[in-house]
Amino acid sequence: EDIGVLRSIPTMVIFEPVDAEQMIQALPQIVDYYGPVYIRMFRKECPAVFGKDYKFDLFKADKIKEGKDVTIFASGIMVKTSLDAAEKLKEEGIDVEVINVHTIQPIDAETVIESLKKTKCAVVAENHNILGGLGSAVAEVIVEAGKGCAFKQLGIPDKFAPIGLHEDIMSTLGIDQNGIIAAVREVMGKDFELDDDWDDEV
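Above: the chain's sequence. Below: its structure in token form.
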């Protein structure tokens, strides 16, 4: 529930690194930033996503994988899971775009809108309560832009998470690779009349 609480604090920057390389590159920018920054870190070792050629921008989301059918917006440990799900979906002919929203507050609205102009389908995957986190931030961008799209939010439901092995908990909550794949299939199959004005200036 931490992001939901902290997003309500004025001027607060909320950053969730994906891996060690991103954290290393982020620290100098965070130190130089004039204002409060909350760093949300996973307690265990995270798999590498970025290489030494990666260039970090604290206020710009990373388009990690290009796609045209559906966009997965993910943060933290859910980014690698989303990339793995995208590879599986590729076998079904579904072309997934994966965007790492490492800074949730303030969210990079420009990148969100730019991606959804193309896909018009959004799945949000986060290791957080579905209230007030990344999913809420993405939904706010879409609504404020006055657009419509197929939308599915994955996260911890409005309850306290169970205790157990990390893999079991994620599977139970439906925010593992299989859960993301199911969510993508759902939004791709939604009978939703999409706006034809996504190309208009926002």
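The chain has a mean pLDDT of 90.
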